[in-house]
């Protein structure tokens, strides 16, 4: 399995904070998200978005890996949580990701899918904390 690396630049993203501690981030030409700390019904925290980005990237990577292997898994859903480290510096020390599929392949194929998804997920490969991934069920 050869993974092709394409050079890509991300951003720039504009972040602004005003009265009320709500941060507005322009993430695409017509997309703006609100971030706050602590989280509210209207806005999540920066950590919420980082963990969500990890889940989205793992789901996309898993989907691409399944396509490469010519395995029809149906919908890919990833539930991700993070645990704060108990020492300094302040950070998320570990992440747990559970993958659910409409159609579950065999054990060996699942292991290979996880291996390929983790290898290609830019977000998980950019984090310092360990990312543990497993299949649901």
UniProtKB/TrEMBL annotation:
Pfam families named among the record's database cross-references: OsmC (PF02566)
Gene3D superfamilies assigned to the protein according to its UniProt record, in alphabetical order: 3.30.300.20
InterPro entries: KH_dom-like_a/b (IPR015946), OsmC/Ohr_fam (IPR003718), OsmC/Ohrsf (IPR036102)
PANTHER family tied to this protein: PROTEIN YHFA
Protein name, UniProt field: Uncharacterized OsmC-related protein
Natural source organism: Nitratireductor aquibiodomus
């Amino acid at each position: 399995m050869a993974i092709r690396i394409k050079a890509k630049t991300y951003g720039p993203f504009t972040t602004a904070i005003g009265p009320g501690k709500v941060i507005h981030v322009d993430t695409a030409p017509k997309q703006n998200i609100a971030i706050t700390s602590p989280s509210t019904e209207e806005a999540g925290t920066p950590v919420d978005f980082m963990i969500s980005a990890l889940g989205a990237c793992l789901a996309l990577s898993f989907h691409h890996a399944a396509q490469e292997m010519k395995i029809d898994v149906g919908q890919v859903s990833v539930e991700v949580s993070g645990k704060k480290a108990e020492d300094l510096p302040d950070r998320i020390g570990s992440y747990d990701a559970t993958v659910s599929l409409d159609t579950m392949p065999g054990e060996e194929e699942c292991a290979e899918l996880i291996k390929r998804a983790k290898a290609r997920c830019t977000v998980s490969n950019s984090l310092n904390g360990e990312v543990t991934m497993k299949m649901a069920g």
